[in-house]
TrEMBL record:
Residues annotated as transmembrane: 378-400
InterPro entries xrefs: Ig-like_dom_sf, Ig-like_fold, T-cell_Activation_Regulation
Region (Disordered): 422-447
Native species: Patella caerulea (Rayed Mediterranean limpet)
One BP annotation, GO: cellular response to lipopolysaccharide
Name of the protein described by the UniProt record: Ig-like domain-containing protein
Length: 447
């Protein structure tokens, strides 16, 4: 009896040992641990030492260290699984695109649904960019800092900072932080630019000293390199000069039926690709007027083809493009007033700026009343009537004055011999006094 038990035990040990050896020989030793950062794509590999066998890949469910039936991934459209025949057997690969933290776990490749299998462990570390500015306004000659922040526990092989010219797509590297100098605040300088980790260790800072016009002609990027197949990129970040669009007449006052010229000026290092015209009511309602693109102006308002005229002039002065935009509104109507007319310019580097011009209505010169006469006509008639009345009153006064004088003289002539002495009569009528002689003088003559 003891001999039989011993023989059975030896057979059992040899079978189990042989199964273990065979099990290990079914798979070639390789990578059993994979790590990645969320957002990247990873590829898991199993190398089989046998041919003409099918395989199944599952993700195990481990709860309290107890293995439960896993989810079969061969029929899942998210995963890309393929096999390649080799001289020794076949290679099984599975690609997981854009991994997340939930993709962490144990993945098993089993052969022919047998106990023969190999497990690999996948760990995914979360990574998230913090919100940052996509554009920064700069002044020529100043020092600036471009900062990119992120949240992660992953360790990166290197951090690259570079810029790309939007004129010729030329790439220029500005700094490279490697694993050796990443934690000691090491500075990597290229000419007047330097790249460092920020004080909190959760971001990278690019410092550019004494900004020039050349610096503004680039888009700036950062690339966090985790592995040869995994990196996180951020950008572009633009450098912009300050206000690019303005008007010398922020308020225009005009009258109905007049032609109105809206004039805007712009200055920038990049040429204009699109101009949008809108107008806004006090209630913040936006109406489209028209747009310019590709050398052609397209009106969008009613009767715009006959009422709107567009003109643009542009010149390049010392690496700065200066231009003028004129939009003419013909025969302004009542509905055109009390609007903010907005010119929005989009430049070649995708930056944009806008400026408003308020159109107000002046008091009209001529307003029709109920009689059909304008206020100007009524005023002219009123002045004419007043002048005529004044002239008539003056004439009447003159006539009355002369008649009064004549009447007085007649009265005096009729009553002068009876009631007035000769001396007074001579004074009143000197002509008569020169031809009348006294009775004494007549007597002397007769003598």
């Amino acid at each position: 009896m003891k001999t039989r038990v011993a023989m059975f035990f030896l057979v059992f040990v040899f079978v189990i040992a042989d199964y273990g050896i065979l099990a290990t020989k079914w798979f070639k030793p390789g990578n059993d641990v994979y790590t990645s950062v969320s957002g990247c794509t990873i590829e898991l590999n199993w190398n089989l030492l046998i041919k003409d066998h099918t395989s199944t890949i599952t993700k195990l469910n481990l709860r309290n260290m107890i293995e439960e039936p896993g989810h079969k991934l061969n029929d899942d459209e998210r995963y890309v699984i393929y096999s390649t025949d080799t001289e020794q057997g076949q290679d099984i690969s599975m690609i997981i695109p854009h991994v997340t933290v939930q993709d962490s776990g144990v993945y098993r490749c089993a052969v022919d649904y047998t106990p023969r299998h190999k497990d690999v462990n996948v760990t995914v570390t979360d990574f998230k960019w913090m919100p940052d500015k996509t554009s920064i306004e700069v002044q020529e000659g100043e020092d600036i800092n471009l900062e990119w922040k992120y949240v992660t526990r992953a360790t990166f092989k290197s951090i690259l900072v570079y810029r790309i010219s939007y004129e010729d797509s030329r790439r220029q590297y500005l700094g490279n932080l490697t694993a050796d100098n990443m934690d000691n605040q090491g500075e990597r300088r290229v000419d007047k630019a330097s790249v460092t980790r920020n004080k909190d260790g959760n971001g990278v800072v690019l410092t550019i000293r004494k900004v020039t016009e050349e610096d503004v002609k680039y888009n700036y990027f950062i690339e966090m390199v985790y592995s040869d197949t995994c990196s996180m990129k951020r950008g572009p970040t633009f450098l912009n000069k300050e206000s690019k669009v303005y008007s010398r007449t922020p308020v225009i006052k005009s009258r109905r039926q007049e032609d109105i010229n809206f004039v805007w000026y712009y200055e920038y290092i990049s040429p204009v690709i699109t101009i949008l015209f809108t107008r806004r009511t006090p209630g913040n309602q936006i109406d489209k007027i028209g747009y310019w693109h590709g050398g052609e102006f397209v009106p969008q308002m009613a009767d715009g083809e006959s009422r709107l005229k567009f003109n643009q002039t542009e010149s390049n002065i010392t690496f700065v493009i200066e231009g003028q935009i004129t939009l003419t509104l013909l025969d302004a109507s009542r509905e055109d007033f009390n609007y903010d007319y907005i010119c929005r310019i989009i430049f070649h580097d995708k930056q944009e700026s806008s400026w408003n011009i308020l159109l107000e209505e002046k008091a009209p010169l001529f307003v029709k009343d109920g009689s059909g006469l304008s206020t100007g006509e009524v005023a002219a008639i009123s002045v004419t009537v007043v002048v005529v009345v004044v002239i008539l009153v003056v004439i009447i006064l003159i006539v009355l004055s002369r008649r009064s004088e004549l009447v007085r003289q007649k009265i005096q002539s009729f009553t002068g011999g009876n009631n007035i002495d000769k001396k007074n009569q001579a004074e009143l009528n000197p002509l008569q006094g020169s031809t009348t002689r006294s009775e004494d003088e007549a007597t002397v003559d007769r003598v």
